[in-house]
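Quick illustration, no need to memorize.
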Amino acid sequence: MRAAGWERARNLHEQGRIKAVEVRASDFFGPGVTDGGHLAARVVPRLLRGKAISALGDPDAPHSWSYLPDVARALVEVAGEERAWGRAWHVPTAPALSIREMVDRLAAQSGTGPVAVRGLSPAVLGVVSVFSPLIRELKEIRYQFDRPFVVDSSAYEAAFAVRATPVDAQVEATVEWWRERLTTRGRSGG
């Protein structure tokens, strides 16, 4: 569906009917991401409490993570650059790290120490998907976590100025944002 949507927009762009550019990202994470990303609300709050993490697919498969502030900066940059229009670009992305590597970095930054990371078996996912629409949807994208899922942003980086924020800075900002959010929510009772 996404590919068809982009093809339609690109065709309209080529016909001169609209100005279009597509910015593609991998799984979002970072300050403000509370939904949709594999490292969002499901992972960071658990690891801040020192709890084990269940990962979709192979927890050791390399995976690209798109840091939300980098996505925003890339969107702003290409919107004002006519030379960007008419094609798709991958957001500047730090080198791929597995779910286990990201959880280890997040846990180290949070001071909780190592947190167990376990892959969910296809059988467990199948059973749970019977009762959960969200898990049914995750079952459809599991392939992204069973093997390497790596974004190549070199074309973007060759053409534009935005670069991926260093992973350590991404991790630090994400942990601090979640700490503040959970502390504030705890004080407000919600």
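The mean pLDDT is 87.
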